[in-house]
């Protein structure tokens, strides 16, 4: 940590950082679980490591290099019984112990960061001695930082982008893209006719068409292309050159170059289409949001649930800034945790 702090100060050109975060300390627990270490032993080591870190960070506060510090963990919201869960209640106790041990007027532990969105709403669940994470944070004067407000991870582990605009219907676009893919599939069939029957097992069509509606997102598609599709196509390209000649090979490569962007666009549009059901659930519960897009609604509801704190949001386009500005400017909405349970996918 000493090195990381010094590197940060040097890169930023500062003598003091406002907040220094311990990122994902729960990786230690994940490693211990992987090596079959008893949970009780791993947990004891885990919180002792955090306590040692707090002592170090308090020393750096004394030296004037840090104003406050905190923890960023993906497991603050997890069920307390889970092996990898990080207990804010235990960490607050540790912070007070370090404060007392060092004779400090106040603890420097002041910030808590965790993922939160419509699909990952565990931070609203009153499962921590009858309280939810937000309540504990506010009661102890901490600043909550919420990350991944629009990139949710569903119960099945899929990444779910909370982005959909009902004004931009995509069904007709999907149909057009599918028609273009069908045309390319037929063209591929004609080009592959130069190969002896039974000399190849897979084609671009057979390794993509059955899975068109199963890709979770663009990254999932890219991984599938790299690991499965491209190796098969490379073999086909070499086979076509050997039997059909360079001209047919060039036509086949040109066909593939045309197909891949269409495939990517199809997956993109399909993912947008899949957000319709979630959007409908939200509108049924909050009919006043009918003119809003899913991103704006998601940010607004998150802001309302947080009441006081910070939502970390990457905004690469002007329209994203407008969505965020509009969502945070609107009056807060009363949030019920059980309502959000309906949004789980």
TrEMBL record:
InterPro entries: NAD(P)_OxRdtase_dom_sf, NADP_OxRdtase_dom. Residues 2-91 form the NADP-dependent oxidoreductase domain. Transmembrane segments: none annotated. This is Oxidoreductase, aldo/keto reductase family protein. It comes from Leptospira interrogans serovar Lora str. TE 1992. The lineage of its organism: Bacteria, Pseudomonadati, Spirochaetota, Spirochaetia, Leptospirales.
């Amino acid at each position: 940590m000493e090195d990381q702090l010094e590197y940060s100060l040097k890169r930023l050109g500062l003598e003091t950082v406002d907040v220094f975060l311990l990122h994902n300390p729960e990786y230690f627990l994940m490693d211990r679980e992987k090596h079959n270490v008893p949970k009780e032993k791993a947990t004891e080591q885990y919180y002792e490591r955090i306590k040692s870190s707090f002592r170090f960070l308090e020393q750096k506060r004394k030296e004037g290099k840090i104003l406050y510090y905190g923890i960023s963990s993906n497991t603050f919201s997890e069920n307390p019984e889970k092996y990898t869960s990080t207990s804010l209640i235990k960490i607050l106790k540790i912070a007070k112990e370090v404060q007392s041990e060092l004779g400090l007027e106040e603890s420097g532990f002041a910030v808590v960061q965790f993922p939160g969105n419509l699909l990952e709403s565990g931070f609203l669940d009153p499962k921590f001695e009858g309280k939810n994470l937000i309540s504990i944070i506010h009661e102890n004067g901490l600043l909550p930082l919420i990350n991944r407000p629009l990139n949710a991870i569903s119960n099945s582990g899929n990444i779910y982008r909370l982005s959909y605009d009902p004004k931009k219907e995509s069904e007709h676009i999907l149909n057009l893209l599918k028609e273009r893919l069908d045309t390319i599939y037929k063209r591929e069939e004609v080009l592959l006719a130069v190969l002896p029957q039974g000399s190849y097992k897979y084609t671009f069509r057979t390794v993509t068409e059955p899975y068109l509606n199963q890709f979770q997102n663009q990254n999932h598609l890219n991984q599938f292309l790299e690991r499965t599709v491209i190796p098969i196509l490379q073999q086909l390209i070499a086979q076509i050159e050997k039997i059909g000649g360079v001209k047919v090979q060039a036509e086949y490569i040109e066909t593939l170059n045309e197909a891949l962007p269409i495939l990517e666009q199809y997956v993109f549009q399909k993912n947008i289409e899949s957000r319709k059901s979630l959007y409908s659930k939200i509108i049924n519960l909050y009919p006043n949001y009918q003119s809003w897009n899913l991103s704006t609604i998601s940010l607004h509801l998150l802001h309302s649930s947080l009441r006081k704190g910070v939502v970390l949001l990457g905004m690469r386009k002007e329209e994203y800034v407008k969505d965020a500005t509009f969502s945070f400017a609107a009056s807060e909405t009363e949030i019920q945790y059980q309502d959000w349970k309906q949004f789980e996918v």
